[in-house]
């Protein structure tokens, strides 16, 4: 029995050796697979790290460029805001001037209308005066001329008078194309 047990033990050892060899072979294969995957993963990691660094560097450069653009835009915004403030002040000044000009224009128009009304009334007054005013104005120190003016200015149909007396000297007048001598009696 001992032999049998020994044989069985040998058999078991043989089976165990085969199992151990199979286990060892699978372990080596698994380690090789793990190693291959580790190497592949490390290679992929390195590629991703390099790619990430490139993209990160590109983003950093773009970020710097954007910051410079923002800085320029802020400077432009400040300049434009300043120009807008100046333009607003100028527009306000111009609006005030336009307002004052409009106010002056309205006042001038009112004065013009008042002047037109006054001109109309003065024209009517002149027409009335022309009907009443003497047609002939005498020399102050000439008695003959005064009497002639009185006669002409009181003539009933003086609007029909077309020829006027023109004084040349004491008592001498031009009447139309004729020269006449006039004297006062009584």
What is the fold's blueprint, element by element?
Blueprint: H1 2-132, H2 143-153, E1 165-169, E2 172-175, E3 178-181
Antiparallel strand pairs: 1-2, 2-3
Helix content: over 70%
Count of domains:
2
User: What fraction of residues sit in β-strands?
Assistant: 5-15%
Total number of beta strands? 3
Strand count, sense and closure of the main sheet? 3 strands, antiparallel
Order of helices and strands: HHEEE
Which structural class best describes the helix and strand composition?
mainly alpha
Distance between the termini: 207 Å
The outline comes out as: rod-shaped
Mean pLDDT: 85
Strand order of the largest sheet: 1-2-3
Helices, by number, come to 2
Name the poorly predicted regions: none
- Kindly provide the radius of gyration, computed on alpha-carbon positions and rounded to a whole number of angstroms: 65 Å
Oligomer: single chain
């Amino acid at each position: 029995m001992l032999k049998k047990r020994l044989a069985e033990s040998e058999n078991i050892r043989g089976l165990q050796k085969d199992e151990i060899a199979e286990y060892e072979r699978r372990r080596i294969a698994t380690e090789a697979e793990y190693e291959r995957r580790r190497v592949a993963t490390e290679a992929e990691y390195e590629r991703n790290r390099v790619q990430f660094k490139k993209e990160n560097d590109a983003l950093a450069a773009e970020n710097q460029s954007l910051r410079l653009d923002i800085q320029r835009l802020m400077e432009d915004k400040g300049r434009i805001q300043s120009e807008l403030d100046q333009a607003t002040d100028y527009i306000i000044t111009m609006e005030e001037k336009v307002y004052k000009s409009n106010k002056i224009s309205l006042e001038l128009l009112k004065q013009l209308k008042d002047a037109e009304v006054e001109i109309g009334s003065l024209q009517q007054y002149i027409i009335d005066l022309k009907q009443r005013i003497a047609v002939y104005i005498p020399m102050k120190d000439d008695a003959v001329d005064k009497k002639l003016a009185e006669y002409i200015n009181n003539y009933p149909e003086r609007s029909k008078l077309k020829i006027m007396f023109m004084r040349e000297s004491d008592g001498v007048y031009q009447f139309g194309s004729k020269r006449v001598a006039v004297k006062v009696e009584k």
